[in-house]
Amino acid sequence: MSNYKDPSVCCPPFDPVPWEEKTIVWNEKPFITAPVCQLFHIPLPGSIARTINKLWSAAEAAEAAPEVQDFLMLAHDPSPWRSDFYLAVTHPVAGISNVTLSGTFLTKVFDGPYRDVPKWIKQTSQYVTAKGHSVLKYYFYYTTCPKCAKKYGHNYVVIFAQVA
Questions:
Q1: E-state strands within 42-154
Q2: What is the pTM of this model?
């Protein structure tokens, strides 16, 4: 994916303000999904790029790719050995796994190294509890690739806490 303005980056700049401490309600929001192999929550080399390329290519081929401003790719780790990536699409895509997400999600934005994820989960859990909810699942929106995060000087991650 490209922002088509600066050829030295592939990810558009991210504005954290619209995502910070928001409540998002989805009713069967369409996504395509694919797994990523991991070792203790660390993706195997090249696996993320291959998965993102696979999902994006499928979405583009089916004319289901979102506009750049609507791009949303979530990751959920059901185990230390696997992560599931979810690309929001405009409609179902043949030939790839399709899912819909429904529910209420509370968001928190963080900026920093990925090693801080356990700390971010704790802060998100406290935020959710303070709002009177409990967490069902965590989804992570890694807003830029490592190269673009370095260029922009920010490594923003949005945690989506699906709540009960």
A1: 42-43, 73-79, 82-88, 97-111, 135-142
A2: 0.90
